[in-house]
Description:
Alpha-D-Glucose-1,6-Bisphosphate, Chain A, domain 4; eight-stranded antiparallel sheet; two-stranded antiparallel sheet; 4 helices; 10 strands
Amino acid sequence: MNTMGVYFSNPFLLSNGNWRNEYPALHLNRISSTNFITLIKAMPRIQYSVTINASAHKVYTTMLGLTNKADYNYWTAAFNPTSTYEGSWQQGSKIYFVGMDEQGKRRGMVSEIKENKEAEFVSIKHVGFVEGEQEITTGEEVEKWTGGLENYHFQEEHNQTLVTVDIDVIDEYLDYFNDTYPKALAKLKEIAEK
């Protein structure tokens, strides 16, 4: 297990990795508007963790930028220097994880807060992309990520918090996340321990 790593920003702002995994697992997905069943390739789930010398509450509020949004922007800058979020962390809410691409265009993910248990667990479900002011929630590229989860677990013991991140990722971004998540979690640890 890695000792560090997290994504909230937009992997689409950066170049793709070339790694291809060898997970042949398939999921059955019923399309609600028809009675067809389609087979789609399962996204591999990867995991990162870091132990932070702070309470779970402090790590949680720092990670989500609840007290100071600049905290969120600081640690997610590992993904993109302009990373931020727009929206609410409240369960059931829509939230945008955005930044500027190399051409200065606003891009990112449209997501939903699937679950949020304060200082215990946060689950984010990705439902589409943001390009400029437009939400894109259908199409081939969206289907690759749709339904993918990003889960954050906070486990406190003796004023130390183990943060574990589980994230569904498409093959072409595995190298990118394996390189970037540890850097992002190191920044989270740095700012949460202040």
